[in-house]
Amino acid sequence: MMLSAKFFSPFFIIICIPFFASSQATLRLSQPSRDQSNVSTAKQFIAGRTCAGCTVKINSDTVHVYTTGTFAAKYELSAGRNAFTVTTTAPNGETSTKNIVFYFSTPPAPSATSIFRIDYMEISPSGNLQLMEGDTLRIKMKGYPGESASWFNDVPLKELPTSQTGGVPGIYSGSYILQAKDSLLNGKIIGRLRKRSGETAILGSTYRYSMMRNEIPLTGRTIDNMTYLTASPHGDRLGPDKIGYLDKDVLLHIVGRQGDYYKVKLSSRTTAFIPEPLVDTEIPQEQLPVSIADDAKIWGDEKYDYVSVALSDKLPYTSTQLVSSKKIIVDIHGAYAEKGLNTVLQNTKEITSVGWGQPTPDVCRMVISLQHAPWGYQVYYENNRIVVKVKRPPQTPSLRNMVIGLDAGHGGSNPGATGLTGAVEKNLTLVLSLQLKALLEREGATVIMTRTTEKFVANEDRLSLFRRTNPDLLLSIHLNSSANPVDAYGTATYYKQPFCEPLNAAIHERLLQTGLYDFGNNAGFNFILNNPTEFPDALVETLFLSNPGDEEKILDPAFQRQVVTAIVEGMKDYLKEAVKSR
Ligand SMILES: [Zn+2]
């Protein structure tokens, strides 16, 4: 009984929202947020909520009102003042009106700098940085056209032809490779513009730069197994794009600093970034080891198959998968594979062969071929032996006895998206996840959830829960959102690891059968729960809460059941394919 009370309380609040809307001619706009606004784009929206059963007119156009009482319309503004009158009429004839004005002006087209000066410069990489000899800096600078521009050591910059600058003259660009003797004493990079008469204009960089001069490389070690490497310190709204997670105590060669990140050299041709707090530099500083990989083992026990290689230290690694050719690829950075490295299999059930390669002079590559498309694997260290533990897919395509990780997105102080009715994503993800849990348990699965109540759970804690409990499959349930309430709608799945594509495709396919529009099965997504390689995962963005049509659907309990059923059917479809050794 307790369970059903928990189950129904968020559910109750959500489906009731439309019925709270009175039959009076109420009118509440979500977009625009003010009655009068200055805008610089022509495409604008008028969206909001009235009573269920009311009609809405914007100027003389009748706008569709959903059963939830919401409406949304898109307009192309003309330059200047654009006035709209939104009128809602209740069944009893009562009306309510709001007047909206957009003042639309396009920003002035960029024009040539008309006086002798530098307007701005953009240096990449940007940020307050510590740089090393060999780092490349690029500059783009806008100033008075037709003069000679330079930066470091009077290295000239080239004025770009106007065909490359959208018609604007005076854009100068160039690149520079830092030399050991270069000084950045005052911390600023200076751009110069010089007239033939000798007159000079200068501008200093916004950010500060300094040189890292280390005779021996600075080394550090990862503090725990939640440590990740990123391709760049600049992320999107989901944080920096992660290359992969490393085990605890992995030795890293630090070659720079950018903001709160260390730049680390993985191998002669690869660098990455790692958040400073995740690296322990209070370790004995040593020359980096050169590791000859000459002792490899490939074996299976009752549950897993393994590949391991002895190294002289815990070196960084990266991995990926080839799904159609059923391979896992692990690169060990800073290691050399000895010719004739062991390829003998002992009792493996999933691994069919292991190949050893050397894609660059200091990267040792293992190519692990499997019976099936990859089902998950973990890379870790046992002393200085790197171990790849390969999961075997289940023997039958059944959810019975399977452990499913289930993440109800958002919660507590992290509400997620809000629909035009006021429905909140965190409540709907919980409603859907609890229904999913019930359905999966009816199939005989065990379900591990990040939350079963309305509460805050940090994303790092969600990841750490699943890396600890190691489910067979992981789903994260969300609702999508866009600033465009009219054109963005439909169902989508998102993944990052290539081997997760089939699970996502199968769930997406079933969700399309509910009649939702196709918003895609999307690769390369940077969500934290898309990172693990230990199990197949899918981020399910069921539909767009920001779209009134999609919102109307998901507030309908019958449609919620269809969505949940489609997800479970998709999982079963995936399992059927995954157990086949094609
Ligand atoms: Zn979300």
TrEMBL record:
Enzyme kind, highest EC tier: hydrolase
EC number: 3.5.1.28
Residues of the signal peptide: 1-21
Catalytic activity reported: Hydrolyzes the link between N-acetylmuramoyl residues and L-amino acid residues in certain cell-wall glycopeptides
Gene3D superfamilies (UniProt xref): 2.60.40.3500, Immunoglobulins, Zn-dependent exopeptidases
BP GO terms, sorted: peptidoglycan catabolic process
Any one of the GO CC terms: outer membrane-bounded periplasmic space
Stored SUPFAM superfamilies: Zn-dependent exopeptidases
Keyword entries, A-Z: Hydrolase, Signal
UniProt-recorded Gene Ontology molecular function terms: N-acetylmuramoyl-L-alanine amidase activity
Short name of any one Pfam family annotated for the protein: Amidase_3
CDD domains: MurNAc-LAA (cd02696)
Occurrences of domain MurNAc-LAA (ranges): 463-572
Protein name, entry field: N-acetylmuramoyl-L-alanine amidase
Source organism of this protein record: Chitinophaga arvensicola
